[in-house]
Amino acid sequence: MLFKTPTAKSGFTALAATSFIIGSQQCIAAEGGEPKGLPQLDISTWPNQLLWLAATFLVGYLLMAKVITPRIGTVLNTRRHTIFDDLKRAKDAEAEAKQMKEDYESALETARITAAEAASKAMAEAKAKAEVAEVDLTAKLAKKTKAAEIRLSKIRDEALANIHDVAKELTLDTVSNVTGMKVTKTDADKAIRKVIKLSGQEA
Questions:
Q1: How far is CA 143 from CA 129, 133, 149, in A?
Q2: Which contiguous run of DSSP H or E holds residue 157?
Q3: Contact at 8 Å (CB) between 171 and 195?
Q4: Within 13 Å, how many C-alpha atoms sit on residue 134's CB side?
Q5: What is the pLDDT of residues 134-159, one digit of tens each?
Q6: Tens digit of pLDDT for each residue in 3-36?
Q7: Among candidates 58, 26, 18, 59, which has minimal Cα distance to 42?
Q8: Of residues 43 and 114, more confidently modeled
Q9: How many C-beta neighbours within 10 Å does residue 34 have?
Q10: Measured distance CA(110)–CA(122) in Å, rounded
Q11: What's the rounded Cα separation, in Å, for the pair 75 and 81?
Q12: Residues 6 or more apart from 20 whose CB is under 8 A from it?
């Protein structure tokens, strides 16, 4: 196909019209005066017009084929490659941005999981320490309670012993002063023990 692009077709049309006009003007100049009627309808000028048309067309064709069209093609190819490169860079930038977003979301999810695991581990360790501290405190309290009970039991026994001795002395003095009878410490001790036993049963 001779005209591959609309631009080339328009160029050739313009060149043909130009050559036709030039040929007409040259024919007029060769005749040395104004033509009668339209020069295009004067059959005697057609060979000259056709010659100039062919020459102008050939020159225009060579210019279009060798100079103008290659330059236009180069510009179009350069523009096409530029657009293609821009689109490729845009796609690469979009893919990079998408990958960065995915990496960020992955890092954020990893950080969240790590934080949750650390918090869970800290809570477990704190709970274990609290349980150990509770067991240790319970053992210490039990030990102190037992020691206090032992001390209280000892104090009670000592107090009962003192009360027993005081009661025994008081019984001896009371019986001696009231009845004039002499009671041995053994009898007084037995009587006091019996009274304490009866008091415990009544309680």
A1: 21, 15, 10
A2: helix 69-179
A3: no
A4: 6
A5: 888 888 888 888 888 898 888 877 77
A6: 455 555 555 565 555 655 655 555 555 555 454 5
A7: 26
A8: 114
A9: 7
A10: 18
A11: 10
A12: 40, 49, 53
**CA-angle at 164, arms to 163 and 169, nearest 5°:** 95
Is 33:11 a contact under the CB 8 Å cutoff?
A: no
How far apart, in whole angstroms, are the C-alpha atoms of residue 11 and residue 61? 9
Give dist(CA 62, CA 74) in Å, integer: 17
Q: Return phi, psi of residue 106, to 5°.
A: -65, -45
Q: How far apart are CA 55 and CA 62, in angstroms?
A: 11
* CB 64, CB 11: distance < 8 Å: yes
For residues 163 and 192, what is the distance between their CA atoms, to the nearest angstrom?
Answer: 10
Give the chain's end-to-end CA distance (angstroms, integer): 134
- For residue 18, give both structure tokens: 């130009």
b/e map 56-74, b = 16+ CB within 10 Å: bbeebbeebeeeebeeeee
Question: Taking residues 174-187, what's their average pLDDT?
Answer: 71
Interhelix angle for 46-63 vs 6-31, to 10°? 140
Single out the residue of 200, 199, 175 nearest to residue 187, CA to CA: 175
> Where exactly are the structural domains of the chain?
6-96, 151-202
Mapped onto helix, strand or coil, the DSSP state of residue 48 is: helix
Under 8 Å between Cβ of 192 and 168: yes
The tokens 């990079």 sit on which residue? 96
